[in-house]
Structure formats: structure tokens, C-alpha cells
Amino acid sequence: MEKLQFVITITQDANGLFEMRVAEKSPNSKLREMVFQSYSQWFSFMKRNSLHQFLLTKTDKNAKIIDHILRLAKEHQMEDQIFLIENNNHPYPLLEVPPFDTFINGFRTFLTGLYPHTYHYTKVKHLFVHKSNLSPELKMSLLNNSNINSSYISQEEEEDDNWFGIAQIRIENQQQMEYFSAKLQLNQHIHNQPFVFMKLHRYVTAGKEDLLLDKPIFLTIDDQADLDVFSQLVMDTFSKGQMKIKNIIPSFKDECMWADKSMCSLRTGTRLAISEQKRILDSPICYSFNHTELHHQSLSRLIESEFTKSFIQSGCKNCPALLNCPTCIRLQPESLEKEQYCNIRREQSFVTDYVKIRNILKTFVHNKENKNDVEASLYFSTTKVKKFYQRERVLTKEINYNDCLIFSFHDEDYIYINKELKFYKINRPLAIVIEGILLNDSVENIYHFMLEKYHWKREMFDKLLVIGDQLFKKIGIANRMEVYD
Ligand code: SF4
Ligand code: SF4
């Protein structure tokens, strides 16, 4: 059998995230290239190709990942298949600025729980460890189960904080209420990011908007007062189709519990705590295993059994909200907090869209120069109120945001297309047509609405449809533009 060679390249993209690519080095065969995100993916590939060789180039930038690979290869008894080429001449350009922002954003994701879907299936991304006296076997198993871009989070000085992720994050200054900082160490560089951390009801009632201009804010929804304010915000947004910048910019801690079911990363263990301590930054962690539990079972089995156990205890089985609700395990069954949470989830189904809209608008606002105008509002349609296609008969028709979100800011209209993850500026007539189509009205009816309301001639309307054609395709509604007379 021919002994094949595979070349492994580990490079950093423009955002600072690493990619591990594997290509077959053979002049006679077609080049096969694969991208791996977790160490275990890569080791199962090696196992399947156990007679072949793997060439890795070590540079200053990827040294930590290569060291992890070598450590794991030894553990898997595969080190004989790996051939290392030391190269500190940087075959790939070094990034001038260490990519702190990417990792700090990743840390924000850890706190909100809102991971992009791609991360749900690529093993542990963030590991929170309270005391790191973990056994070497446990460390090895966690490393094997991690994403190559994983970070290690701790609350105290660690003696050996290099074994897991490529970035180390330490949460500091918690004793000073309402502030903490995340000290991020990436390679040899250290970066300090201060955060404001407070209860939602205090943020809203104490007029703390000035803080927005200073440090990133995290709000917690942990007690009755927070839940009341949150419920009111969701209700107001639904009935007015309006959000103020000051209510968009802060992030919610564990926002995932208010989002759609698919956002919960519990089952995939994307963020994991190994700690006797059941709380982080003053609120419960969804998963926290202690060392002993992890010694006796595999991580995936433990996650699965914890999930099943908590689901049975939760009493969610017959709940009408089950379809969309993540059945969050942070809440103790039959506790007052859970009762209040469930009331909101059952009675205000808009809450899932509230989280979705808020996050789209947050991205939009972050890229705007005038975001400091914290009292300014963004407007959009809800099932209760229509901003664009205000035809009498559709005013209370259900609207969903699966394909896109149309909104206006400072009298200018925009559309965010989910499939593309992009914003486009559009004019009002186009916004009206798109909303009309999304509300399942016919093009003929939409034309009559434009005629009555804006005295649009048919030629103008036809021209608008031609101009909008590309956009309709991007949104996925082009097939609904039937011919009309
Ligand atoms: S269990 Fe709750 S807090 Fe944990 S990831 Fe799921 S929704 Fe978020
Ligand atoms: S609303 Fe409550 S009971 Fe219903 S599925 Fe969600 S967590 Fe479970």
C-alpha cells in the first residue's frame, strides 16, 4: 500500500481565529483538502489513515496548537506518524495587532450563551475552571474534546494555565460591585478589558445610560424586579415596534435562555464549567461538573445524562411553549424564578423574536457613527403594529423574521437578510413591497395600496419591481412575485 503524506497547515484568518487544513501531498492524486475545527476530528482522521504520515509546520503563531497536537499524539500513541518542521520565518504574514477583539468577543459570547451555530458542533469552546487541580488524564480528555480556538476562563491566578486553550481569560475585580475586568492572555500579550455588570432593573431605573459610552455592559435578569422590567421591555417592543439604542447596546448574561431553542448549547457542551462553585459572576452556570464526576464518565455521556435528567425534572414535557423554549436548566424546578420565567415564555411568545431583533440591531448600531445618541429609536413591524405595509387588512397579521428584518433608523430604511448576514439600505417603497410580500399579500393588492396611498403609477411600480429583483432573490421571495394585470 502506498504511504501517503498529508500536509497540515494551521493558519490565522483576518479575525485572528485559527484554521487547521489537511491536504494530501501526492503528485498523482487529486488534492483533497479538509478543514478541522476540533482536535478529536483531526485525531479520528489520523486513526483512519494510520499508515500514513503527517507533516506539520510550527511557527511562532501556531506553536500552542502544535504543542497541543503533539501532546495528544503522544497520548494516542501516534507521535511516530507526525513530522515536525520548525519554521519561525513566518510563512504566513504575522498579524500586526494581536486579535484580542476576536477573543474578547468570544468571551462575551460565553457570557451571553449566544454562540453561532457552527460552534455548537465543534466541541468545547470555552472552559470555565474554578480550581485547576485537574488530573493529567482529565486535562487530556478535555483537550481532545476542544475546538482549536478554545479559551480557558478562570477566576484566580492559575499555576498552569496553558494546557487547554490558545487564549487564557481571567475574571478579576468581582468584589467591586458592578465592575469586573477580563484579562486576556494570548501568546505573550496581555490585554485588559473592563466590563460593567449590573442588574437589568437597576440599569433601567437608575438612568445608567451614560455608562454605555464607556465600557461594555452586561445585564443580569435574576430576580423578580429584573423579570418585571424585562417582561415590560418585551411587551413594549411588541406593541410599539420600537427599540431605543440604550436598550439595544447592553448584552444580557445568559441571553440564550430567552432565545430560540436552537440557541441553547447545553447539549453540545460548548461552554462548560468544571467547578464546585455553582455560580459565575453572581449567577448560576448552566453546566458545572466537579472533578470526580468527570473521572468516572466520558464527557459526552455526562452531558447527555445531565441533559436527560434535568429535562425529566423540569416538568417541561407537556408545556405548550416547548417547541421554542430551550427548557433552560439554570432554573431550579418548581422554584419561584422558574415559575416567573415560564410565565413570560408562555404568555409572551414574542420574547424569542425580541432577542433575535435586538441582536440584529445591536450589530447595526455598533457600526453606526451616531450610536452615542442613546435615546434614538429604531422601528420595525411586529404582529401588533406595522411600520411599512400599513394596509388595513394586514395590520394585525402575523409577521416572522425568518428571512429578514426591515427597519428604519433616522428616517432611513434598511433590510437585514438572514441568509446573507448582511444589511442593505433600501427606499421606503421597496420596504413596503417586501413587507407586503412577507405578509403574503398579492402584488396586485400591494400595487393598489401604493396607488391609493402614494398615487404611484403602474410604470413606476413595475420599475420598482425590476430594481428590487436582485434583493427579492437574496431574501428568497422572488418566486412570490406573481404576474399581475
Ligand atoms: S441551559 Fe440555559 S443558560 Fe445554559 S445554554 Fe441552555 S439556555 Fe443557555
Ligand atoms: S416555558 Fe417553562 S415549562 Fe415550558 S418549556 Fe419552557 S421552561 Fe419548560
- Derived structural class: alpha/beta
Distance between the termini: 69 Å
Percent of residues in helical segments? Answer: 25-40%
Biggest beta sheet attributes: 9 strands, mixed
- The global form is globular
Which regions are unreliable across 5 or more consecutive residues at pLDDT < 50? Answer: 91-96
Gyration radius over CA: 26 Å
Alpha plus pi helix count: 15
Number of extended strands: 21
Tell me the strand percentage band.
Answer: 15-25%
Strand order in the sheet with the most strands: 13-11-10-9-8-7-6-14-17
Distinct small molecules: iron/sulfur cluster
Mean pLDDT: 85
What's the SSE blueprint?
Layout: E1 5-12, E2 18-25, E3 33-36, H1 39-48, E4 53-58, H2 63-75, E5 82-86, H3 100-112, H4 117-120, E6 124-129, H5 136-144, E7 146-154, E8 167-172, E9 179-186, E10 189-199, H6 200-205, E11 217-220, H7 224-240, E12 242-244, H8 245-248, E13 251-252, E14 271-274, E15 279-280, E16 283-284, E17 288-289, H9 291-296, H10 299-314, H11 336-347, H12 351-366, E18 377-380, E19 404-409, E20 412-417, E21 422-426, H13 428-438, H14 443-454, H15 458-475
Parallel strand pairs: 1-4, 4-5, 6-7, 6-14, 7-8, 10-11, 11-13, 14-17
Antiparallel strand pairs: 1-2, 2-3, 8-9, 9-10, 12-18, 15-16, 18-19, 19-20, 20-21
Helix pairs in contact: 13-14, 13-15
The structure holds iron/sulfur cluster (2 copies).
